[in-house]
Amino acid sequence: MMHKYPFKINKLGYSCVIVIDATIFTVEQLAQLQGGYPFRGSIEESVDGDALAVQMKDVDPEHGVNWSGVMRTALAGRKQPDWLKAGDLLVVSKGARFYAVCLDESPHPAVCSPHFFHLQVKSPAAAIPAFVAWQINQPPFQRQLKQAAEGTSQLSIRRPVLEALTLSIPSLADQHRIVALVELARQERRALNQLIRNREQQLNALADSLFQAAI
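User: That's the sequence. What structure does it adopt?
Assistant: Structure tokens below.
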């Protein structure tokens, strides 16, 4: 059942607070969800392989998939692969941290390991994939994930549990605006980190010059 309710969001660079109407959807209503490719055992590298295999080491919530580091492998099973496409989402389903990334275009046919759920938004006219990925990574949805996680030595999320969790989807215009703000914040973090690195290099150079002057 879908409900509409207002919530407030601060617009970066504006002093006003905007009230946005949003509709509640379950993940299953918004996206088709499937598991990663069913590799048998460890994933073996093959320079002549027919696919890239995205693993946990290749994914970062801030930068997405580092395609240049993704291993090429040969798919041995008869199952037709669910190839990854631009706009698909990968959701980490096991481990200490659950998060989602929205994929850009893969340089070669690619699949993901069983550590991920592979989500495809059913209707981009209703929900922008980048917005869905962003909301999955935000505290309200993260609280749902943590409450639903199972396991002792390693936490995991079962597919039916993830499908039943809920997301708040505003209008497309508001989604686009939020995605733009997310990208702006990402650019600001990169610029700030670069400034920090530059200042550290200056201080290191100063320390070296002082040391050389004392010799």
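The chain has one domain: 26-214.
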